[in-house]
């Protein structure tokens, strides 16, 4: 694949896929599929849903009578685990590898579809015997280990609703999510390995549970073997429960028949204001969406080895580590630890060792590994790779080109996928047969109606920046905010009637290619991780020295965006380097290491509107030496 600077009819730096890539692609003629879905949205999705098995077919593909509370595959009976595991175990795929796992310390475990399905069965019996039933919420707070998959799949199998909390989050973030979801049960581990250190997950759970009374039980997976506190009657070892005679014999482990619209999981994500919100996804539409998008965009074939480097604790992990690959009967690889531990070629060595063919990662990781130079990847045979992907934040063309040249050896198309926790699956993305441009997420996936509009909701001209909106529903869309339907309507559907507001700014070029610019709200994407200023600020003010604070995101060479905080101290406290460091540690303790601020500046006042709202836009402009714009609402 070579850069072709000016081919008709596309403009700019265009990379065209080689003929063999197009001919062998799962979608060799994207234009035909775009046209099919544009002509008949429901027909398109019905066709894709029919590629999976249903206990009972749907009566209606799409019900929009209560919009924006759209419903998909109404009347259908299904369970995502039936299509992810049960149906494969009946075929030769029973003996195919579902998961290859490597621990940061070099441990290796593999699971065939049969083995994974057995473990999920056993654990679902454990869950049922502990009183977890359909509709109950279960919080999963785990390192990147196979039991994370088993826990998620076992919940889904019995119809419980999982709420996975990223293992890099800490006490207050975990506490808030346990409490809001009212989880009876927490599944965690004694710890996990990350970047050469042990993350003490159980200790964080203990601390979080001191702040709430909702959780009745904790199940603990033994990963590190380091001693942990086990509270009698509350805490149980996973390996003991799974080996009880009842569970060993797999008691009652059949897969619960769910309505297509029954909840599958909630996942907390940061928004513009207030606490993180619990985005709710369902069994039917979500499974169809992630199955089809992964199959088409990453072109998964029976013989592929897929590696998505995300963490199961984020939507990327839910959709494209756990559910999407299994729905496609694929073989996945998962790695527990940090990318440059013990050396910056850890990832590249594992691509060679396991023969990874499709590799999906983040711009931050690429930029981080790029800094070490290409000698590290050049030491390894990366010739198994055929397709690459990027997600989470805009990829700068320089990182795209490095990824393309030094990892893909100019042979692998790069799928830059734009989507969100809320969208469930890919929304704007190339497919292998679509020409790509470095830094652009290319075109809407079939059936996805994207537009860029101005403040009034009118489409802007090509090249102009505006708000990214979605004008038609899609099966994997969020259904609501758990327990807060009003917030769902308010956040996504109120600015422009009938349009979903994504919260990003973007532009479209003359070829119809989309270029995402970034968030337009108070969400900060640190290294691709989504954090909210409100959550960060409340972690700050929980420290006794802090009276008030404002948090903003500023450009950072590797992280994309980094956290900067302006802090007003309470009387009796003096600014110092030592206090700044203490505050950084405090925020990391409450929220997690990813939330550790880059820089703290002590100030006497903050720019506010007359109604008392902090003008973060002004702080941001000042910090970057840019124009502060319209200051007419600024308080005297
Ligand atoms: O700002 C966009 C950015 O990530 C946001 C969604 O974050 P989250 O819900 O955590 O999901 C991340 C993984 C899907 C978006 O609003 N974003 C995601 N993918 C891209 C991106 N920005 C630019 N290019 C992308 N490919």
Structure characterization notes:
The chain is α/β, with parallel strands linked by helices. Helix content is 31%, strand content 24%. The protein contains 20 helices and 32 strands. Strands 14-13-10-8-9-16-17-25 form an 8-stranded mixed sheet, with helices on both faces. It has a 7-stranded mixed sheet with strand order 7-6-19-18-20-21-22, sandwiched between helices. Strands 23-24-26-27 form a 4-stranded antiparallel sheet. Strand 21, helix 16 and strand 22 form a beta-alpha-beta unit. The longest helix is centred in the N-terminal third of the chain and has 17 residues, at 113-129. Adenosine-5'-monophosphate-propyl ester (PRX) is lined by residues 269, 314-316, 391-394, 416-421, 441, 502-504, 516, 519, 525, 530.
Which ligands occur here?
adenosine-5'-monophosphate-propyl ester
- The strand line-up of the biggest sheet is 14-13-10-8-9-16-17-25
Tell me the strand percentage band: 15-25%
Parts with pLDDT < 50 across at least 5 consecutive residues: none
The structural class is: alpha/beta
Task: Provide a count of the helices.
Answer: 20
Label the overall shape: globular
Mean pLDDT across residues: 96
Report the C-alpha radius of gyration, rounded.
24 Å
Determine the fraction of residues in helical runs and give it as a percent range: 25-40%
Biggest sheet descriptor: 8 strands, mixed
Number of strands: 32
The first-to-last residue Cα distance is 58 Å
